[in-house]
Every structure is written in C-alpha cells, then in structure tokens.
Write a structure and sequence with these properties.
- With 251 residues, the protein is of the alpha/beta class.
- The chain contains 11 helices and 8 strands.
- It has one domain: Alpha-Beta Barrel (TIM Barrel).
- Strands 1-2-3-4-5-6-7-8 form an 8-stranded parallel β-barrel, surrounded by 6 helices.
- It is globular.
- The two termini are 25 Å apart.
- The protein binds 1,3-dihydroxyacetonephosphate.
- 1,3-dihydroxyacetonephosphate binds next to strand 8.
- The site of 1,3-dihydroxyacetonephosphate (13P) has 14 residues, from strand 8.
Length: 251
C-alpha cells in the first residue's frame, strides 16, 4: 500500500511572520494525523524559521527548487546541501512555473533530480501538459517525455515522487476530473513500470496537482493511482490545507 502524501507548495508567498503563523495553525489542525505524510514547501527565506516550528511534529519540509551543484559561483541559486542543512527532506523539481516562466529544460531538471537523490533529498518531479498539447492529443507524448527525460540515469533503489500537474489546471480553478487525472496517473505508472519494473512502479507515489481544494480533494484522492496532492493556493491557509489532508474524515 502506498502511503498518501499531501504537500503544500507555497510558491512565492509568505513573509517569515506569515509563514510561522500558518505553520503554527497547521500543526495544531493536523496533530492527530499519523496515517499519511504531510509536507510543506515554503519559499527559501522561510525554510529555517518554519523548520524550527516543525520540530517534533509529523510535518516534513521541502524546497521548491534547487541547483544541482553543491556550491560555487552560481549567484541566486540554492544547493542540495543547503536544503539538507536547513532540514528539508524533499525538493520540488521541474514545476511547470520553472519550465515555462524560467525556461528549465528536461536536461536541467534531470541533473537536479540526480543531484537531489545523491544528497539524500527525495525529488518530487513535476510533469504535465499545456492546454494546446492536450487539445492536440499530445498529453501522453509530453508526459512520457518529461518522465523519461527527468528520470534518465536514476537509480531506482532511491525514492522519488512524481507530481502530475496539468498546466491548464494550475491556479485556474479548473481541476482535472478524477477520471481524467486517473487516466494519466495510470499511464505514468505504466511508464515507471517500463523504466524500473512493476514492483518499483507500484511503490512510487504519484501526486495530482492543479486547483486541488477541500471540495474536490476526496474525488481525486480516492482514485486508485492518485497517491496524494501537490496543493498551491489552498495550502496558503491552514484551514483549507488541513481539510485536504483530512479529506476522508467526517469532522
Ligand atoms: P494551485 O493549487 O494553486 O492550482 O497550484 C498547483 C500547483 O502548481 C502546485 O505545485
């Protein structure tokens, strides 16, 4: 059985005091949750203060990006060693905003994925098609390329997570239907099976992201190949994020 992972990607939101307030509320609201993994990915400036708040809780910490080198003359970049140092166990890589706003390529993302793993971070590799790719029937081709290129040379003894985030569903309020998302998740699991064998594919978590809200979380998370969520907007409030974490509880 795969353990659910509910992750919040705060993107470029929250000052340090705001981040502390959010995480204080969140840890109270999720203190009774121990049957699934919870992760928050604050902006770099809030990682350390948030980590201090998280000590002794069941909430993990992740970065939203990193460069693949350990250190050096790379102005503006953050290294895997720095993320580890500050208490991260996960790092989001290849987010569609990195791909489409900052021009990250599959090759660059692949280097980052390998480096994250080498340094003991679990990469969350994001993949997903744009609206025009979906409309022209290219969803599978795009997703297959992003998964295969992103994981090139990956040693399957290590853990990784995939996040399927259709670009047209990110921040738009338009969610993929559970059935549509399940179809792509099933396809991704087939690719993982082809790459690393069935056993590894069955163990690997595939998250859905794109306008996940308390109202639609249950339908998505009950699908057989959807093993969690990568939440943007709704992770910025403790109340809505904790409702997604507890999507299957009556409260
Ligand atoms: P929204 O939940 O705001 O659509 O963002 C999704 C996302 O990009 C998470 O990484």
């Amino acid at each position: 059985m795969r353990r659910l992972l509910i992750a919040g990607n705060w993107k470029m939101h929250k000052t340090v005091p705001e981040a502390i307030e959010l995480v204080r509320e969140l840890k109270e609201l999720t203190a009774d949750v121990d049957d699934r993994d919870i992760l928050v990915c604050p902006p770099f400036t809030a990682l350390y203060p948030v980590r201090r708040e998280l000590e002794g809780t069941n909430i993990a910490l992740g970065g939203q990006n990193m460069f693949y080198e350990e250190q050096g003359a790379f102005t503006g970049e953050i290294s895997p060693i720095m993320l580890k140092d500050v208490g991260c166990s996960y790092v989001i890589l290849g987010h569609s905003e990195r791909r489409h706003i900052f021009g990250e390529t599959d090759d660059l993302i692949n280097r980052k994925v390998l480096s994250a793993t080498e340094h003991g971070l679990t990469p969350i590799l994001c993949v997903g098609e744009k609206i025009e790719e979906r409309e022209s029937g290219e969803t599978e081709k795009v997703v297959e390329r992003q998964v295969k290129e992103g994981l090139r040379g990956f040693n399957p003894e290590n853990e990784f997570v995939i996040a399927y985030e259709p670009v047209w569903a990110i921040g738009t309020g338009e969610t993929a239907t559970p059935e549509l998302a399940q179809e792509v998740h099933g396809f991704i699991r087939e690719i993982l099976s082809e790459l690393f064998g069935k056993e590894k594919a069955e163990k690997t978590r595939i998250l859905y992201g794109g306008s996940v809200k308390p109202e639609n979380a249950k339908g998505l998370l009950e699908m057989p190949d959807i093993d969690g969520a990568l939440v943007g907007g709704a992770s910025l409030k403790a109340e809505s994020f904790s409702k997604i974490v507890k999507f299957d509880r009556e409260e």
